Amino acid sequence: MNPFEYVSATTPDEAISYIGKNGRYLAGGIDLLGEMKDYIISPDILVNVKSAVNPSIVFLKGDLAGWALPASVTVSELVADQGLRSTLPGLIEAATEIGSPQIRDMATLGGNLLQHSRCWYYRQPDIVCLKRGGTTCYGTGGENKYLALYSGCACVSPIVSNLSVILTALDAKVRVKRDGKEQTLSMHELYQEAWKNPAAHNALQPQDFLLSVHILTRVNRSAYRQVSEKNAFDWALVSCAAAGNVTDGKIHDARVVLGSIAPVPYMVEEANKFLEGKPLTDETASKAADLILKDAKPLAQNGYKVPLAHTLIRRTLLALNA
Amino acid sequence: MAAWPDSPQSLGKPTSRVDGVAKVTGAAKYTYDVQPDGWLYGMILRSKWPAAKVTKIDLSKAQAMPGVKAAVLAGGEQRTVRFYGQELAAVAATTKQQALDAIRAIEVTAEPLPFVVKEDDAIKPDSPPVGDGPNLSQPKVDSKGDPNIDALFTSAAAVCEAELRTPVQLHHALETHGNTVSVQGDHVVAWASTQGIFSVRDGLAGNLGMPQSNIQVICDHMGGGFGAKFSPGVHGGLAAQLSKAAGAPVKLMLTRLDEGLAVGNRPSSIQKLKFAAGADGKLIAADVENHGSPGISGSRKTAGGGGGADIALPYIYNFPNVHSQQFGVIMNTGPASAFRAPGHPPASFGTESMIDDLAVKLNMDPLQFRLLNDGNPTRQREYKEGAEKFGWTAKYKKPGSDPGPIKTGIGCAGATWGGGGKGSEAQVQINPDATVEVRCGTQDLGTGSRTVVAIVAAEAFGLRPDQIKVKIGDTNLPFSGGSGGSSTTASMSPAVWDTCQNALTALQTQTGVADARGAAWPDACKKLGINPLTAQGKWQEGFSSSGAGGVNFAEVEVDTETGHVRVKKVVAVHDCGLIINPLATTSQINGGVMCGIGYALYEERIMDRQTGLLLNTNFDSYKITNIADCPEIEVILINMPERGVIGIGEPAVIPPAGAIANAVANAIGVRVHSLPITPAKVLAALGKVPNVTAV
Asked: What DSSP character marks residue B530?
C-alpha cells in the first residue's frame, strides 16, 4: 500500500479535524485495508475511530425513541445482543450471514454499511473500471453473474451490505456529523447517490462521520433471507429483508427490500402498498414479488437472480407470519 | 527381506501424527515461516497484459530505491508475453513494502497484442494466434471395436448424447508456492514448499549452473501440494538469482493473486459424449470428443509443449466399441500442470453423468447399471459394501420424484488410479541408549508421511511409533522421489521396512540377541557398546503394488426455487492395498471429498473476455469448500494387505463430482451439464430463468 499517516481520535469532532480531503476513518478495517493493499484506494491519513464513539447498544426514549446502534459496534456484538435478538430477528439474521466469525468479530456496523463495491472488475488490481474512475463498465458486457438487475447509471455493481438491506426494511435512520452539524439521513438518502453516480458507493463524503443507526419504527415482525453459492462465508447472490406489523393475520406498514441486485437497497413502494392490510399468503407474497421484479433488466448471465429474488421475497414475507 | 507381518502391532492401527502437537501449537515451522539471518523479501513483477510485445524493462529506478538489494529480469528484456501474470522481473528488498514499491517502480514498455482467453473463442478459425502454430491442435484419435460406430448407435436400444463442460481449476494450496533460497558462494540452501525436494534441488542446480551436490533443499513442513509443486518454478529460479545478486537469503513466497495466475492449473474440458446401451443394459459404444485447454502450455502440434489437456475418456467402463478424439486448445492464460489425479475428475464427471442418463433411459437403477458394466472386481465389492452402508436401495427414487420444492437425490461414481511406488532409500541409526533415528529424503505434504515412517519402523522393531525419531525433508538424507501420483507411501514404506530389517539383523548378529524386538530392545541396544549401529535399505519389489479403485455415494438436497445445492452425505469407499495408518488415510479421503465438492459446486477460474485478465483473484470469488459446506463423510477402507502398499491421494478426489452431479440430476429430474453446479445453472436447467434454456 502507499504510505499514509495514522492517528487515533477519541471524539467524532477530533476525527473529523484530522481527516482532510483524502483521509479515511478506520474502524474494523475489513474492507478498507483490503482496498489499500490492492492499491484500489490510497488515503493519505487513517483516523482510528474505534474509540471515538461510545460502543453501547441502547434503547432510547424521547425524540429518537427506539434502538440506537453506534456505528462502531461490531457485528458480533449486534448478534449477541439479547434485546435486539428478541425484538428484531431480521437484523440478527442479516448480521449472522456476514462473513465468518472472525470477520464478524472485527467488522463494524458502520463499516458494513459503507463498504465498497465487491464487483470483481472493481476489485481486480489491474482493471480501472468505471467505478474506479475509468471510462468503461466491464460488468455490463462481461462476466456479470453476480451483478445488478437494476441500476440508475452505467455501473452495474450491486450493494452487498447485508445490514443495509434489513435496516432499509426497518426504515432506520442514520446520524451523520456533516459540516459541523449532526444530520439525520434515511437509508434511501444514505445510498441514493450510488444509484445515479457510477463513482459513488454511498452518499457520504470523506469528511462525513457516521455516528449511529437508529431504528425508530416499532414493527413486531422482521426477517432476512439470503441465498449464496456456498453454505456460509459467501456473498449473497440475492438477499431480501422484510419488516412490518402483523396483527390479526394481516400485514401493515410492510417494507420489502432486496440486496445484491442494485447499487442500492432496492425497494418498490407499490409492493409495500399492495401488501397493506392483506394476509401474508403464497398468493399475496407472490404478487408483491411480481411488483418488485417487474422492471428487472437482467444482463446476459444474471437472469437467474429474477426467479431467485422472487423465491426470497415470498419466503421472507411468509417468515413474517411466524 | 521379511514380508509384511501377518499380525502387525503398529501397521494398520490408527495413529495420531507424530508432529501433530508441533503443528497445532505452532511449533512446526512451515516453509512460509523460515527466516534465515539477513533474509530479504522477494517479489515478482508480472505482465499486466494477456499478450504483449515487451520492448524495454527498466530496472534502474527500482534498483535505486531504499532497501532494494537486487533486481533481476525473469527472461530477456525484449520478449513476447503470452498471458496475464507472466513473470517479467523480480526484486529483493529488506521489507515487504520496499519490495512492493520497487516492483511498482519498474518501467515496462510494451505493445499490447490481440489475445484470446475463452476456449470457445480460441477454437474459432479467426481467433488471434496464441503461439506460433494454430490454437487448435490436431486431434489424438483412438478407436477400438467396430470401425462403423455410427451404425451401432442407430440400432441401440438407448442412446444418450450431450456436451459436458468442466472449468479450469486453480491450484490454491493453502500455503502458496514459494522458496527461501540462500546462495552463499558455491553452496546453496533452499527451503521449499515442495512435493519433491530432490527435483527442486536439480532445478536450482540447472538454474544456477551449479553441481547438484552443492545444493541442499529442506522442507520440514509445508501447506499442501497437489501436483504443481515439484520444480522450483519460475519463482524459485528468480529467488535463486536474487539471492546470488544480493548475497543474502531471499524469501519469495507467492501472493494469493500470483497463485491464481502462473503456477499451473487443471485444464478445462468440453466433452461431447455419445453413449449407447442395449436393452439388456450392456454398454455397446462410446463416441467421445474432448476440447481441453491447458492455457498457454499447449499440446501436441500447437505451440508450446508439456501439460496436455487430454482426459481419460470414456472412463472405467467396458465399452466394446469406442471412437475418441481429443483436441488441445491453447489460449492466453496461465499454464496447466498436474493436478491431483490429472485427467480423471473431468472424465469421471462426464462419463458418470452419461452413464446415469443412460440408466434412466433404460429404466434401470444406476447402481445396478454400473454393476452390470464395470468389470473391476474391487469396485464391484466397493459398490456393494458402500450401497449397504449408504442405504442406496431404500433411498433411491426416480429422478425428480421427491415431492416439494426442496428435493433430495442420490448418485454414485467410481474411480481408478495407478499409484504404487519405487526408488526410495532410507537409513536407520540405532543408538546404545535404545533411541532410533530413521532418515529418508521424502517430504510430508501434510498427508502424514513422517508418521508413516515412524509406524513402519516401530513395526519392525516392536516399538511404539512415538519412540522413533524421524528425519525427512532434506536432500542430505537418502533419496526418495517426488510426492506425486499417489506414490509416496508405497515408495518409502518398503524402503523403511527393508532398512529396519537390515538394522535388526545387524543388531541381532552383533549383540547375539536372538530377537531384539520389543521388550528385548533396550538391552540389545546397550550391548552395542559405545558406537551406534547404522543400516541402509531401499525399496524392493513385492511390498507395494498399483491399481486402486474407489467409489463414492452422495446424497444432496436441492432447493428447486433457489437452485442451491447442499451435499448432505458422502460415503467414500476406497482400497489402497495395505493400509499403514487408517487415521491418516481417512483424513486424506476426507480432504479428497472436500476438494471434489469444490470442483462439483464452487470452483471455477473466471477469465474476462474484454481485458484478458483473471477476475476471481481472491477466495471470496474463487470459492473453495469450507467447513460449513462439508457433509457427513463416511469413509470405508477396504484393507488388502496381501497387495502391499498402493496410495490414496488421487483416487479420493476423482468420484465426488460425478456422484454429486448424478445426485443433483436424481433430485431435480434434469441434468446440469457443466461444473460447477451453481444456483444459476440449476435454475436454468429447471427452465426457470427467462431467456435461458440450457446450461
From this structure: T
**Chain-chain contact of B613 with A232 (C-beta, under 8 angstroms):** no
Contact B221/B474 with Cβ under 8 angstroms? no
Q: What is the CATH number that goes with domain B34-113+173-259?
A: 3.30.365.10
CA angle, B627 as apex, B624 and B633 as ends, to 5°? 105
Q: Is the pLDDT of residue B604 over 70?
A: yes
CA triple B83-B85-B91, angle to 5 deg = 135
Inspect the interface and report whether the beta carbons of A231 and B628 lie closer than 8 Å.
Answer: yes
**Please, are residues B527 and B513 in contact by the beta-carbon 8 Å criterion?**
yes
Select from 1.20.272.10, 3.30.43.10, 3.40.630.30, 3.30.300.30 the CATH code of A1-52: 3.30.43.10
A229 to chain B, any CB pair closer than 8 A? The answer is yes
Q: Which residue of B has its CA nearest to A126?
A: B48
Q: Do residue A118 and residue B620 have CB atoms under 8 angstroms apart?
A: yes
Model confidence over A185-216: pLDDT tens digits? Answer: 999 999 999 999 999 999 999 999 999 999 99
**A1-52 and A54-322 share one fold:** no
Considering the entire predicted model, what is its pTM? 0.97
Spell out a b/e string for B557-570, using b for 16 or more CB atoms within 10 Å of the CB, else e.
bbbbbbbbbbbebb
Cβ of B614 within 8 Å of Cβ of A301? The answer is no
CATH C-level class of A54-322: alpha beta
For B246-305, the pLDDT digits (tens) are 999 999 999 999 999 999 999 999 999 999 999 999 999 999 999 999 999 864 444 333
Cα B523 to chain centroid distance, Å, stands at 46
- CA A170 to CA B194: how far, in whole Å? 53
E-strand ranges in B95-186 read: 107-112, 140-144, 158-166, 169-170, 178-184
| Residue from B506, B508, B504 nearest B462 by CA | B504
> Per CATH, the architecture of B20-30+421-538 is what?
2-Layer Sandwich (3.30)
| Cβ-Cβ contacts under 8 Å for A78 (sequence gap 6 or more) | A57, A69, A84, A91, A92, A95, A109
Amino acid, res. B329? V
Q: What is the domain partition of chain A in residue ranges?
A: 1-52, 54-322
B363 touches chain A (CB under 8 A): no
Boundaries of CATH 3.30.365.10 in chain B? 20-30+421-538, 34-113+173-259
B296 to chain A nearest CA, in Å?
Answer: 20
